[in-house]
Amino acid sequence: MTVDLVAFRHEDETDTEYLRGLPRTEQFGDRKFPHPDTYHHAVAAETVDSDLSERARHYAEAQRDWHVRGQNGCQFARLVAKDAELMGWDYAVYGGDPQAVTSQLVAELNAQVADAIERPETNVLSLLMPQVVHARDAVQIMRLLAEYSDFWLERDEMTNDGQALYLRYPVVDTQAWVMAFAPFDFLPNTRRGPFFELAIRVKPKPEWLYHRLNQDRELSHLADVPLVMSAQYWDNRFNSTLSRTRRILGGEPDQVSAAKATLVVPADRLGE
Questions:
Q1: What sign does the CA torsion over 229, 234, 235, 241 have?
Q2: Quick one: average pLDDT of 156-177?
């Protein structure tokens, strides 16, 4: 493993008290959330004298805090993030320069995903890259993953909405839809996390699946993580996800915000 890559499970809690009081300056519908820059400044201040391993944990906990607050709109992902250590939402954090990503690093990231697939207790793995602050770097990294690892691009084409990348990863007998979150201002509000993240469901669909979720057993995504709750609670959470997502987006989900697309970059932002 390179010195710039840190992988860990959420077994040892990082002190995140400083995240709880972050000012909520972004309002989407009737909800307020911290701006990505607020997370950046808070983590930087907390980790001034820390090594990469310690910084990596804070990066991951900040991203987890964002998911727990519910800006991604999905109540199921929120529940999984809230109990990440129990539900098995793990992280591999690359803290280096995105311009320095090599085929060797890509192979190591691929190995992290392969290991997570084999680990029974892991349901989701996030590849977190805090130094990716430009869309061009995010696109380049995704293409490198597709070229030098088991990741593959179902689509990588210019559409009316921009360059659309649909990144996938084979998991047993399914294909995982990889979801990207990042602090890019062109992204839908539900995707605008503090740091660039590629979140991967690393298990096939469970035997029982809530009937209103996607039933295609040849694909998997974050909503497939098995949760134990009553039928009424499933209905409530699903309805809440729909209404919350609409409020945060300010409208209906579309091909840019929906889970099927990993990342869509407007044509005029590809050079940034």
A1: positive
A2: 96
- Token duo for residue 90: 């793990």
Question: Which tokens hold the place of 218?
Answer: 């040849």
Confidence of residue 11 (pLDDT cuts 50, 70, 90): low
Question: DSSP H helical segments within 52-202, as ranges?
Answer: 52-69, 75-82, 84-87, 103-118, 135-148
Report the mean per-residue pLDDT for the chain: 93
55: left (phi > 0), else alpha (psi -120 to 50), else beta?
alpha
Q: What is the CA radius of gyration of the chain?
A: 17
Place of tokens 């309805």: 239
Q: Indicate the helix (H) or strand (E) that contains 248.
A: helix 231-249
Beta strands in the chain (DSSP E): 5-8, 26-28, 31-33, 89-94, 124-129, 152-159, 162-171, 174-177, 179-181, 196-201, 219-220, 263-265
- Alpha helix positions (H), 3-102: 17-20, 36-46, 52-69, 75-82, 84-87
CB-CB contact of 174 with 204 (8 Å):
yes
Percent of the chain predicted with pLDDT > 90: 76
Closest CA to 94 of 82, 103, 106: 106
Q: Is the pLDDT of residue 16 over 90?
A: no
The residue behind tokens 């932002």 is 269
Spatial CB neighbours of 245, under 8 Å, sequence gap ≥ 6: 73, 74, 190, 253, 257
> Where is average pLDDT lowest: 40-44, 127-131, 180-184, 257-261?
257-261
